[in-house]
Automatic annotation (TrEMBL):
It comes from the Bacteria. The lineage of its organism: Bacteria, Bacillati, Bacillota, Bacilli, Bacillales. InterPro entries: DUF1540. It comes from Jeotgalibacillus terrae. Pfam families: DUF1540 (PF07561). This is DUF1540 domain-containing protein. Residues 2-41 form the DUF1540 domain.
Length: 44
């Protein structure tokens, strides 16, 4: 899913058209999803 309208990979509503997803921690080791970022985002 992609719920970010300004992401170039947001296709057909909330479908993600990226060939792969890169998720990384804010810093060090993440203990929860709140401590991560999606690095796949690219502005349209």
């Amino acid at each position: 899913m992609c719920e970010v309208n300004s992401c170039k990979f947001n296709k057909e509503g909330t479908r993600c058209g990226a060939p792969k997803i890169h998720v990384a921690p804010h810093k060090g080791r993440a203990e929860s999803s709140d401590e991560t970022d999606c690095k796949t985002y690219e502005h349209v």
